[in-house]
Design a protein that fits this description.
- This protein is mostly helical and 121 residues long.
- The chain contains five helices and no strands.
- The protein has a domain of 31 residues.
Amino acid sequence: MSEVSSQLPNSQTFDAQQIAENVEAGEQKLPQVDVSADYEASKEFSVSEIDRTEAGAEAAAAATAPKFEMPTPQETNLPAQSTGNPDDFLSMAKEIKSESVPGEVTDDLVQKAIEMGTPGS
């Protein structure tokens, strides 16, 4: 049995193939594309007529204006209290890092692994 394809052939590919064959046979000239001219022409359509006027500028400003007042942030000075005692830093570091976490690799665990040997030996 043969399979039935529900996809139609791409007509754009067919058109491109026809143009290529006609150009090769000399029946048709190769189309010239001026990208710079096309780009300049597209600029006319990128901005609407109202946007080129003062009313358009006012409408854009109104549309993008914030809906709520934003308070101005105030700077707060928090002076650091320097004690010059290294033990203060050590106690702070201990508060941040817990003594032992499950899954943590310690030097004792590494030493025990070395004593047991490598896998497969």
